[in-house]
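ERR on first pass: missing label on line 2. Operator R.T. fixed the label and resubmitted. Corrected input:
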Amino acid sequence: MNKTWVTPGGIHPPENKQQSLTLPIGELPVPEKLVVPLSQHIGVPATPCVAVGEQVLKGQKIAVPSGPLSAAVHAPTSGAVWAIEERPIAHSSGMSAPCIEIVSDGRDQWIDRQGIADFQHTSPTALLDMIAQSGIAGMGGAGFPTAVKLDPGFRRPVDTLIVNATECEPYITADDAIIRERTEEIIQGIHILSHILGNPDNIIIGIEDNKPESIAELEQQTEDTGINLVSFPTKYPSGGEKQLIYILTGKELPSGQIPADIGMVCVNIGTAYAIKRAVIDGEPLISRVTTVTGEACGINRNYQVLIGTPVSHLLQHNQFDQQRSSRVIMGGPMMGFSLTSDQVPIVKTTNCILAPSHSEIPAEQPAQPCIRCGMCAEACPASLLPQQLLWYSQAKDYERLEAHNLFDCIECGACSYVCPSNIPLVQYYRNSKGEITKAKREKVKSDQARERFEFHKQRIELAEQEKEAKRAARRQAAQQAKASSAGSGSAVDIIAAAKARASEKKADPQQQRAKLERSVASAEMRLQVAQEKLDSAVANSESEEKINALKAAVTATQQKFEQAQARLAEQLQ
Amino acid sequence: MAFKQITSPHTHSLQSTGKVMQMVLWCTLPGLLALTWHFGWGSLINVLLATFTAVIAEALMVTLRGRSVLFYLKDYSAVVTAVLLGLSLPPLSPWWLVVTGTLFSIVVAKQLYGGIGYNPFNPAMVGYVVLLISFPIQMTTWITPLALLPEAVSHPNFIESLNVVFANTAPADGVTGATPLDSYKHSEGLTVEQIYQRDPLLSQGLLAGVGWEWVNLGFLVGGIIMLALGLFTWHGPVAMLATLALLSAIFWDGGSSQSPGSPLMHLLGGATMMGAFFILTDPVSSAVSNRGRLIYGALIGFLVYVIRAWGNYPDAVAFAVLLANFAAPFIDNYTLPRTYGHTDRRRATEKGEV
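pass 2 clean. output:
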């Protein structure tokens, strides 16, 4: 038995995991339409590589990664691309984002799948490429592109691989279910991970002791594999990456760093399974196991769900009763977010759809003032002072919030859970984090604007100085000329000076040309005016003398105009 | 289908401020029982009268402030303040003393600062100190414990007690007397042994004075129950009691005429246990972090001892708590816990980057 460490804080909410574990992982009929978001991961949304109307096969790539921090997206079933447009997606704000809608043709016909059975003799780079092309992103919740996380060239060498099988949120049993039913494949996935990472010294599966069946399966399968299975007492939020690292290794992940910085990689056990399917079976990530549970659902169980399946499809097949439901949550009751619509699709990170009844999760009680009882501080796994953070959030005292390490809050909700005054603490922290981030962004912006302005001012000043210098030089030259003309009075000098000026002007042909063009234009205008005057005089039958004078003027102007044109032509040559 | 949007976390424990306060009230019972057993009905009348006054005052103030009366009465915080004040006042105090103190606690010390959660000072102790300074005679007249009453004299029964409180009739001779700490304070030049010989209150006690030791043990029992229930952490009370014990051990000097009294007498005499478990554990006015509460508790223990030993007042819990209330925000500044992933403890005044 490996040593484990105990994190501060933590809570023990009712687990409610049994309900969804009475039946094995189920399958649902393929929905008529599937809506596949282009961004199901952290990073840049994928770029569609199919056109509307195109026929696609199950597992065919429909969007390619846009740059290194992105993930591919594949068709979850065979059919036609119906639309590529914005649709409501699974997000706490209820926002819309670009999605590809696929109408199933009912055949569910796969592409040609090509796996690598002998991964041991395949280079890690090739395997990483395969994982990237399979669109795998962390399935525990954050959805970080897995190939990026595993890239050994990206950070320093990895000595510890942690496989997260904690699943500490109440109600969720998706990981538990796949461990029970697909242990062998998970272990294969872990071997692939180990191979990619250059066989790290420590490979640890961390699991809470509330999953005895899974632990028994894993114990059997990890025997003599070099994989350590470590179970530890159940406590929320032990499954948080930072918490799990501490529980298993006694090390803390320094604030602002990622596990690779301390030679660790932390992968969800569902991701390990997806990697096995991708590498050995050649199946891209187009489905996942999702728990459907809560008293407002007649059936509670886990399903192998196609990515892009609308939540309504899941609810319908599980005897969902809206009358009984207090809300519909994607994720667990601690960190999940409530959905505003049942049309949002299941994505790669959706581990649970929870539809609790009113008695199970009642409506929020009005918040009372904080009495600083400190139960929140006792529950905080990051050793923060939630009561102080609340105080400063309300006062919008961002300096103090940062001094109290607001950004180390993992938003696990333990503080809100224990708060006897029903204060939505996490909501305050999210809001303050957003405000501080915004303020920082604006500060960067205003700094840039200030720099720009200062540079502009400097440039203007410089130009002014140059002008002033020129002016001074000209004044000096004029004075000198004056002095010399007053002194010698020689006409030869003056003429020489005039000639020099003229040649100087000539030296600049562009200026010369512009001047000639101006004179051509003005001559033309004068000619027009003279012609108009002559015409009106003729029309008004004015005196012969006047008409003749005007005629002469027109001729003279005509001549000047022609001369000017000739000069310009000469200059152009 | 459209659904309601609610922020996470969605589940909550069933704990509520009202329930916490009710548990505190239940835990005062052993102390109240000991008080009533040894000193008669006076304390119970104090508690009931203060509660009545506090609820009315709270309701009026909340109404004046335009808030929901029921919502705020449900948190039971006014009742807790009133009960604690009632327990700390001398039994058989005149009714106006109790009412004045309670009104000051609820109206000035609590509601004028913004009500529950916003009072910088412990409301019960503010009320107590106001009374102690304004009405020193009434506040220092205590009752003789049952065991020491003269022959043929007994504590007034409940109805007689009501008469004493409301009609200002004097109780029988010998019913009122000093407290053990008073006895100590007014004994210049006597060794501890001489003081004990002089005063049966001390000499007939088992640990720290007849009656008083049981009252303190009662509050200790209540406090341990609250600790076990997780209503507060051990840091504040333990720091206070440890500091008090340590200082009284250092200055005990075997009981010369200069000795301020034995550790046992300081721990189980006066308002020590009530202060440690029911007064300084008021979360609103105390320091917030566990380390902060250690310092806060130690400061109170220190002040209690210094005032008891060398100050003008025989007991000092109320003063010590109020002085420490002043210091709480300052303590908070320097006692932030070390956050996960940080190597240093920060000071709250360190500036962020915004």
